[in-house]
Amino acid sequence: MAGPRQRRTAWNPAPRYNDGYRERQVAFKLYNSLSRRIEAFEPADGETVRMYSCGPTVYNHVHIGNLRTFAFQDILRRHLRQSGWNLLHVMNVTDVDDKIIAGAALAGVPIGEYTRKYVEAFFEDCERLRLERPEKIPAATEHITDMVRLVDRIEQAGHTYQIDGSTYFRIASWKDYGKLSRLDPSGIRSGARVDADEYGKDDARDFVLWKASREGEPSWDSPYGAGRPGWHLECSAMAMAYLGETFDIHTGGVDLQFPHHENEIAQSESATGKSFARFWVHAEHLLVEGQKMAKSAGNFHTLRDLTERGYSEDTIRYLLVSTPHRKQLNFTYDGLRGAAAAIERLRNFERRLGGPFVGSDSLASSEQCGHARSQFRDALDDDLNTAGALGAVFEYVRSAHSAMDREEFGPGNAVEARGLLEAFDSIFEVLKPVEIERVSADEVEALIRERATARKDRDFERADEIRESLAKRGVVLRDSPSGTDWNYAT
Ligand code: AMP
Ligand code: ZN
């Protein structure tokens, strides 16, 4: 495609302001799991879409099932921006939970050290799949104060109780419990408690807000005793910290609808008395032979597994986004081969558009292109019907090839066709070549050592240069008397 390529660093910030169709439009319709209806979407303030996505729990590499959900969020982001809205998109990183604590203990390292490499690997996967970076990526451990404050508000509203140093949410005390998952209230087992971060999907029980610390586990002081936040609390507190008490869209995979999202609603709305997210949007699962792809089922592939088998990131991205998010997607190697072939068809067409043309411009070809362009956009406006959008493009490509064969396609038609491919690629982004410049943890550590030496030698110019160049590549350094710590910028 034409135009200068931007050099990429470890998961580049995405453009935050609308850069697409320019004019505002309210044709976008989105299925809302809360109302169970397709509704017209507009941000509440008429300008900026405030959106929260449940991010990864960083105890392992993500699999392409997880990435399907993140890829759907990318398509949603892009279409919202192209529809004329600005974006404030927050995705958390869950960097403290049962599995992380167990994994860190097994590896004999602090949780921060344990999670860092998985955060890095996750960012790298997102970058490789060309997922736009959300505007904010807070880590749970950076927001403990917000979480404790939220427990205070829930307590003041009368929905908590404490047992053995842990604080629980009493779901029977909040009349709206179950409104997202349409849970039958008779199934609620109030007084029966769950304090694990992972539990059964069909049994509603009181859930933990603040977990008493156990010997050897990381903990934070709070008015509720030393402990750590429950997983559900993390998301409510971080969403409200960045987006306010009510915001536009909350996303995640369908498995999070209950209990995670139901519990987020209970905590947030019982504390604020206001509605939490206006739209709840869930992505269906990626399946393997009819089963949900999951770490626990052992039927998963990581991005790395597939690229090592020779499938490109473009191909994988295409496969993940070509099925609309409300349909399950069955992963197969045939599907991957089909995705590669589809991209190849578009690239061939793009090459053919380079001319030379024996025919001259035709009105019919021009009209077909205009029609495809509006069908493309209409399909995305229709609850992000990516399959329909692709259908419009491929139908046009077929008709344009035959117009060229009939010599009824000229250079003016080619300019229009390139415009359509650009519109396509601004959402699907599978045609452009990318240059990736990654900063690995090893490279950061080596540069920190070099900087320490430079400072010892009073070469402050070099030391500052290293800090600045790392900052440009999304790495933040923090100096303290005990040395230099670092993290990826959020
Ligand atoms: P986790 O790190 O397990 O909390 O998952 C991160 C995201 O991936 C969540 O939004 C999950 O709902 C989603 N997810 C997990 N497994 C799948 C799957 N097989 N297909 C699609 N999304 C998934
Ligand atoms: Zn969440």
What would you note in describing this structure?
By secondary structure, the protein is α/β, with parallel strands linked by helices. It has 14 helices and 16 strands. Strands 5, 6, 7, 8 and 9 form a five-stranded mixed sheet that branches. The chain has a four-stranded parallel sheet with strand order 4-3-10-11, with helices on both faces. A hairpin with a 4-residue loop joins strand 1 and strand 2. Helix 8 crosses helix 9. The model is unreliable at 1-9 (pLDDT under 50). Zinc ion is lined by residues 54, 235, 260.
What is the gist of this entry?
By secondary structure, the protein is of the alpha/beta class.
What are the main properties of this structure?
single chain; 490 residues; alpha/beta; Rossmann fold; Isoleucyl-tRNA Synthetase, Domain 1; 3 domains; four-stranded parallel β-sheet; 14 helices; 16 strands; disordered N terminus; binds adenosine monophosphate; binds zinc ion
User: Quick one: how many beta strands?
Assistant: 16
Supply the CATH architecture of the largest domain.
3-Layer(aba) Sandwich
Distance linking N and C termini: 30 Å
Count helical runs: 14
Strand fraction: 15-25%
Name the helix and strand elements from N-terminus to C-terminus, one letter apiece.
EEEHEHHHEEEEEHEHEEEHHEHHHHHHEE
Q: Report helical residue fraction.
A: 40-55%
Average of pLDDT: 91
| Morphology | globular
The CATH superfamily of the largest domain is known as: HUPs
Would you tell me the structural class of the helices and strands? Answer: alpha/beta
- Identify the CATH class of the largest domain: Alpha Beta
The name CATH uses for the topology of the largest domain is Rossmann fold
Low-confidence stretches: 1-9
- Ions, cofactors and other bound molecules: adenosine monophosphate, zinc ion
Radius of gyration: 25 Å
Q: Please outline the major beta sheet.
A: 5 strands, mixed
Structural domains: how many:
3
